[in-house]
């Protein structure tokens, strides 16, 4: 049995982390039975979530989890895509994970109101007297990581415009199709859905969410994917 280690439901989402969401949706697309447990990054082989335990094999990072599962079970999440579509799917995934994720994460962590009602609660399990210092340290580490990848070296307006450009690109690729490359979801749809849901959740207010709500096809796509993969999770699409 596969055990998926994640953060669990939070922030109006069935799973707090878009990377864990990606892996969970891909497990469902592959039709593989699994159970899910709350995990700790320090218990992961790479110090991050998600990771899986697959009959004793511990695999971390959503990309390498996918590779492991496809190889072990002889399945291909991109079956039906031609060579060009596979290349485009990889480019979209890198755009979302290596660029857009930091921009959307910045909206969650570095807008004070969002941090206070969201990630600040990650330390709630610590003794009350230690929480303020732990929150400061956590926020400092996240702020430095976003500076290291270059995102917070820009102005707030520039950051939003960079994120909006990725949203526009994704909207153009999706067009009026049910999924990014046709009628059925491919591996990259798990990534796109996870990132979009994280931006569109009404729990967090941000200028990037406002821009995302302006793309009707992305809003509808996110709602379709939510119904398909998390039918019991309440989700109200922006009007």
From TrEMBL:
Gene3D superfamilies: 1.20.1050.10, Glutaredoxin. It holds the Pfam family GST_N_4. InterPro entries: FAX/IsoI-like, Glutathione-S-Trfase_C_sf, Glutathione_S-Trfase, Glutathione_S-Trfase_N, Metaxin_GST, Mito_Protein_Transport_Metaxin, Thioredoxin-like_fold, Thioredoxin-like_sf. Residues 1-77 form the GST N-terminal domain. PANTHER family: FAILED AXON CONNECTIONS-RELATED (PTHR12289:SF41), METAXIN RELATED (PTHR12289). This is GST N-terminal domain-containing protein. It comes from Sorangium cellulosum. The lineage of its organism: Bacteria, Pseudomonadati, Myxococcota, Polyangia, Polyangiales.
